[in-house]
Structures are given as structure tokens and as C-alpha cells.
Amino acid sequence: MRILHTSDWHLGQHFMGRTRTREHEAFLHWLLKLLDEKKVDALVVAGDIFDTGTPPSYARTLYNEFIVSLQQTCCRQLLILGGNHDSEATLNEGRSLLACLNTRVTAGISDDPEDHVMVLEDGTGSLGLILCAVPFLRPRDLVRSAGGQSGREKQLAMGQAIQSFYSRVFEAARSTQADLARDGRALPILATGHLTVVGGKSSDSVRDIYIGSLDAFPASGFPPADYIALGHLHRGQAVKDRDYIRYSGSPIPLSFDEGGRDKQVLLADFKAGALAAVQPVAVPCFRRLV
User: Fold this and answer.
1) Burial (CB count within 10 angstroms: exposed 0-12, middle 13-18, buried 19+), residue 182
2) According to the model, what pLDDT value does residue 155 have?
3) Statement: the pTM of the whole predicted model exceeds 0.85
4) The dihedral of CA 56, 99, 78, 71: what is its sign?
5) What is the Cα–Cα distance from 121 to 128, expressed in whole angstroms?
6) Phi-psi region of 155 (alpha: psi -120 to 50; beta: other; left: phi over 0)
């Protein structure tokens, strides 16, 4: 089974007073062609679809038209995760309608971890992969602030809450995996996330998302999924010593310090119930920032 991992589109972004519409249009057109060329089974967008919680109408149009156009490709499964720039309400507006177009949106978290577990199909229609769909985890959804807590105590509480949430979702995924294994189907598990991991390289356009509570989440806090598709950092990179934990990075440069860096999407191949390979695919430069 083949997954394409991307993130941080930031549709609707203005940079130095100029719209990025043409660059985003060019990227989405290129992406549609790539999905067919590479025979991708499912597309995972790990957060920050939009640049703001109230995206302009043209950004919403780009998003909706892309989803419609996706139906004409071999990739019939789209997984959208909410990021820190996204509004849960905005992403959830068309959730039921988009489900009819094989698009599943996870904008926020549910009290039931099973709501975050999905089984994806490969190109033949057979079950191919289990997804732990984890969006950006907002502090208000995970922890209650207590008076008198030090900064360090708040950091520990937030880190533990994130780890606990991942553990509960992963256990639900493991249960699904065990049920399918009894039928002779060995499926890998892919988890998503939208946060900063310890050691990740940031850029000027990335906002701190856990100010005062958590600078970065340790990679050791993730469950042992076969692949972890991350968003939030705009530089494509693998987490040190854990090649299966990856940031795809943003597809277009969002600040001057990103202008000289290559952009990418990631192809993740799974075989025999495990990750087989991860292949970066360079995104063309549609406009240089100078």
C-alpha cells in the first residue's frame, strides 16, 4: 500500500502583502498528477490546510475543487487532519458532505479513541493499513490549568497528556489490528500528528504552539507505530534516530528563510504489515522568494 504524506499547505496565506494563490493552484495541480503517476492509494494531509481559522473564499474554493478533482485520480482516499492554524469549526463545516467524496476530516479530538482509528484500503479494495488520525492537540482539550503551577509543571502535564492521548488511540488501533490478524490480515499502523518534536528544525514562519506549557514533545513519547506522519514544521526532515517519524514540510516556502530550501512530499510504502520504504519527491519551485 502506498501513502502520500504532505502537510502545511497554508491555503490563503499572504506574504509581504501578496497572495500565494497561483503557487497553491500550481502545487495542487502538480499533486493531482503525481498521485496518478505514483499510483498512490491514500493521501494524508497532516494539518494546517489553511493559513487562518477564517480562510478567504478563494482558499476554500481551492480546497473544495481539489477534493472534487481527486475523485478523477487513482487516489480515492483523502485524510485531512486539523493543525494549529486551522479552525475546527471551519474544517467540520462540510465534513458529512466530504465523507461522500471519500474524504475523512479529523479537525479535533473525541472522547472515544476509536473515533480516531480508521482502516484504509489499497488500490485493489483490500484492507491495507490502520490509521491513528491525530490532529493538533489543543491544551484546553487535554489539561486543566491549576493555580500555582510552575512552568516546568505545566510542561510535564502537557507532555504527559499528549502521550496519554496517543497511547489510548494506539491501543484502540492495536485492538483493530489484532481482530484483523485473526482473519489472516496483517496490517501496519500509521499515526499522524501536528506538533514540534524534540530535535526538529524550525523556520521563521512556524508559530510556537504550546507557549508556556511545552516547547517540544519527545520522540520517545510516541507509540511504536510503523510510520508517523507529522505536520507543523515547514522543513522536510526525519526525526533523529527514528527514520519512520517524518515531517513532510510545507510544499511552498512560507518565509524568506525557507526560500532556498527544497520542498517535498513523502511516499510511504507498506508491505507485509510493515513500512517498506519512504521516498521523498521534490516539489517544483513555482515562484522564488527573493
Assistant:
1) exposed
2) 80
3) yes
4) negative
5) 5
6) alpha
Integer Cα distance of 152 and 150 in angstroms: 5
d(CA 118, CA 38): 23
Amino acid at 18: R
Query: Residue 236: CB partners within 8 Å, gap ≥ 6?
Result: 246, 247, 248, 249, 262, 263, 264, 266, 280
Phi, psi angle pair for 220, to nearest 5°:
-65, -15
Q: Is the dihedral of CA 191, 196, 202, 207 positive or negative?
A: positive
Distance CA 172, CA 239 (A): 25
Query: Residue 198: its pLDDT value, please?
Result: 87
254 has pLDDT over 90? no
pLDDT category at 260 given cuts 50, 70, 90 is: low
Domains and CATH numbers, the chain: 2-283 (3.60.21.10)
Q: Which residues contact 183 (CB under 8 A, 6 or more apart)?
A: none
Residue 66: what residue type? Answer: F
Least confident of 18-27, 125-134, 251-260: 251-260
